[in-house]
Amino acid sequence: MQFSWKRFLFNLAAPLAVGGLSALITGNSMGVYKTIQRPPFSPPGIVFPIVWTVLFCLMGISAYLVFSDREHRHARAWKAYILQLAVNFFWPVLFFCLHWYGFAFFWLLFLIGLVIWMIREFMLLNKAAGLLQLPYFIWLLFAGYLNLGVWLLN
């Protein structure tokens, strides 16, 4: 596989754009975060945009590794990737805009299932690409804890 800057930048920009658009829609999400009761070990609000930027970059690099390889058929990996990105996009809207903490928790569980599927598909095609998704998976587990805590406390 020969490196392509154009393809790399596209794959990097796509998840960053999804996250950026979601952040734009949720607007004052950190204001909401400050006003709700949070469980122990809740990080300060500034942590979230930093972590999500890193995770979206890892997601883009991982996608580049998988989808740049023309020798493999990757229709299932593509479906898993796009579907989890779409579900990821809506979680902040459910949580921060609509304040549907319970529904957002179950939505997040669905997202975690999709990410497991995506990691599996990526690992079949490119082990490094699958491994690059593990921080995302771990963060989603932590986000699940936070979401559940907020739901129960509010």
Verbal overview:
The protein has about 150 residues and is mainly α. The protein has helices at about 5-25, 30-35, 45-65, 75-95, 100-125, 125-130, 135-154. The longest helix has 25 residues, at about 100-125. The protein is elongated.
Describe the protein's topology.
Blueprint: H1 5-26, H2 29-35, H3 47-67, H4 75-97, H5 101-125, H6 127-131, H7 134-153
Helix pairs in contact: 1-3, 1-4, 4-5, 5-7
Major sheet, described briefly? none
| Mean pLDDT over all positions | 95
Tell me the helix content: over 70%
Kindly estimate the percentage of residues that lie in beta strands according to DSSP.
Answer: under 5%
* Model regions low in confidence, pLDDT < 50 over at least 5 residues: none
The end-to-end distance, rounded to whole angstroms, is 51 Å
| Topology, number of strands | 0
What value does the Rg take, in angstroms? Answer: 16 Å
The helix-and-strand class reads mainly alpha
**Element-by-element helix/strand order:** HHHHHHH
Q: Determine the number of helices (DSSP H or I, runs of at least 4 residues).
A: 7
Molecular shape? elongated
Q: Key features?
A:
7 helices; 0% strand; mainly alpha; 154 residues
Gist of the model:
The chain is mainly α and 154 residues long. The chain has helices at residues 5-26, 29-35, 47-67, 75-97, 101-125, 127-131, 134-153. The mean pLDDT is 95.
